[in-house]
Design brief:
It is built from 15 helices and 20 strands. With 482 residues, the chain is an alpha/beta fold. Helices cover 38% and strands 17% of the residues. The protein folds into 2 domains: 254 residues, 3-Layer(aba) Sandwich (Aldehyde Dehydrogenase, Chain A, domain 1); 187 residues, Aldehyde Dehydrogenase, Chain A, domain 2. Bound molecules: 7-thionicotinamide-adenine-dinucleotide phosphate. The site of 7-thionicotinamide-adenine-dinucleotide phosphate (TAP) has 28 residues, from helix 7 and helix 8.
Length: 482
């Protein structure tokens, strides 16, 4: 399959107005840190420094929590759901109006292709605000229990793979249910959260309802440990999730943890094979594989494995890897040097343990952090690349003979976030969905998201759900659940 030669089609970055440095967004305005320091955020595709951002201190977190508490007690906790909903609708509309600015900024700071930030991240972020705006005045009727009430002040810590979208997953349900928020974006991708602070001002949200504190792990830890936080919502690695669970054990804090994954994408012999190939590509190469629910383990029925592998490799040779701002790019930059080292280390382990490595041989830019779309065949279950989350554009291929074997292999992981099943038989889809220990099971598709649909994991993928009616319940107490 030949790759068409396209002329460059770069999106203009003129729409983004970057400040040389940013303070913290506390009580409705940008303020200087008290005792914190600063760090640089870079474009991972070019290593260009984009801006300098504040590394918030524990004193800054304390100020942010105090502002959130005042806003909760004084305004937001008393406001009617209908009025809260108006603010959420306003935020949603502003996100749509400024969609291009957000998409370009996300791509610059994260390295993801512009077609993904433009067509997935930003529209879905707006959709989350629209969806939750609709719930704000209907919580009594959401089946959450008797008299649902906000927890109060919510601490939220998010990762770098979908910076704006994870912010929306966190902030929209918290505000809809009447909570106020202190949110920390990831160290490598703080810029869209800071631009969101601008949206908060534009929407005229009362001061202190949303506070954004940038920083590294220690800032996140200060949020987790703060005594006046009522609920924590964390998305990130299982390692940090376990530390958080230990830190809050024995306290009154509620928590939801959305952690890692090692999803099986299972292809049966009767599946529509070319569609399945597209689903595999979307499953693991979307967003450079920096996706917690990525289909990183391909389980193929043995009698079609050779044919599928051939088609998949041919398809991967047509993927365009390079400038994330180019509208034709399929695979962008790895988000950070540290993540590139982790991917490099795990793929080296794959070779050392005896799996066969293949990549699409594409040219990579000289500067920035890059990794070729890679496939490992001959992978066995004990290999690190079959067990550990690589969080990069790397697929491990395993085979199976019977549905029972597929289930046993798919469930043989400490995680349980998502899975995919490809077959023509509806009854088999239902049987598989019942057997798989995964929070989400996609059938004849992969990586489909919608604000109405709950998302979350089993086992070491965490607890609690985000999205849908189930996601709302994590943000309220009721007379039945206390
Ligand atoms: P983490 O290292 O866990 O970081 C997540 C967030 O926690 C970041 O903001 C991080 O700050 C902060 N953090 C680090 N140490 C902390 C501590 N001791 N206390 C409180 N906060 C702390 O994960 P990551 O590398 O950013 O993201 C990749 C992981 O997230 C993958 O395992 C992936 O599967 C998972 N993930 C899961 C989901 C869902 S929905 N289940 C979605 C996306 C990602 P820094 O950025 O400064 O380190």
């Amino acid at each position: 399959m030949a790759k068409f030669e396209y002329a460059p089609a770069p999106e203009s970055r003129a729409v983004v107005d970057l400040a040389p440095s940013y303070g913290l967004f506390i009580n409705g305005e940008f303020t200087e840190s008290q005792g914190g320091s600063a760090f640089k955020t870079v474009n991972p595709a070019t290593e260009e420094v984009l801006s300098e951002v504040t590394d918030a201190s524990a004193a800054d977190v304390d100020r942010a929590v105090a502002a959130a508490r005042r806003a909760y007690n004084g305004v937001w906790g008393r406001m009617s759901g209908a009025d809260r909903g108006k603010y959420l609708f306003r935020i949603a509309r502003i996100l749509q109006e400024r969609a291009r600015e957000f998409a370009v900024l996300e791509t610059l700071d994260n390295g993801k292709p512009i077609k993904e930030s433009r067509d997935v991240d930003v529209p879905l972020a707006a959709a989350h605000f629209f969806y939750h705006a609709g719930w704000a005045d209907k919580l009594e009727y959401a089946g959450l229990g008797t008299n649902p009430r906000a927890h109060g002040v919510v601490g939220q810590v998010i990762p770098w793979n979908f910076p704006l979208l994870m912010l929306a997953w966190k902030i929209a349900p918290a505000l809809a249910t009447g909570n106020t928020v202190v949110l920390k974006p990831a160290e490598t991708t703080p810029l869209t959260a800071l631009l969101f602070a601008d949206v908060v001002q534009q929407a005229d949200l009362p001061p202190g309802v949303v506070n954004i504190v940038t920083g590294a792990g220690a800032t996140g830890q200060a949020i987790v440990d703060h005594p006046d936080i009522d609920k924590l919502a964390f998305t990130g690695s299982t390692g940090v999730g376990k530390m958080i669970a230990r830190s809050i054990a024995g306290t009154r804090k509620k928590a939801t943890l959305e952690l890692g994954g090692k999803a099986a994408n299972i292809i049966f012999e009767d599946a529509a094979i070319d569609q399945a190939v597209e689903g595999i590509v979307n499953g693991i190469f979307f967003n450079q594989g920096h996706v917690c629910c990525a289909g990183s383990r391909l389980l193929v029925q043995e009698n079609i494995a050779e044919d599928l592998e051939r088609r998949l490799k041919r398809r991967l040779q047509t993927l365009r890897v390079g400038d994330p701002l180019d509208k034709n790019t399929d695979v962008g930059a790895i988000n950070s040097k540290a993540q590139l080292s982790r991917i490099t280390e795990l793929t080296a382990a794959g070779e050392a343990e005896g799996a066969e490595r293949w990549d699409n041989g594409c040219e990579l830019p000289a500067k920035g952090f890059w990794f070729r779309p890679t496939v490992f065949t001959g992978v066995s279950q004990g290999h690190r690349i079959a067990q550990e989350e690589i969080f990069g554009p790397v697929l491990s291929v395993l085979t199976f003979r019977t549905p029972q074997e597929a289930v046993a292999k798919a469930n043989n992981t400490p995680y349980g976030l998502s899975a995919g099943v490809w077959t023509e038989k509806g009854s088999r889809i239902l049987w598989m969905a019942d057997q798989l220990r995964a929070g989400v099971v996609w059938a004849n598709t992969f990586n489909k998201f919608d604000p109405t649909s709950p998302f979350g994991g089993y086992k070491e993928s965490g607890y609690g759900r985000e999205g849908g009616r189930h996601g709302l319940s994590a943000y309220v107490t009721t007379e039945s659940n206390g």
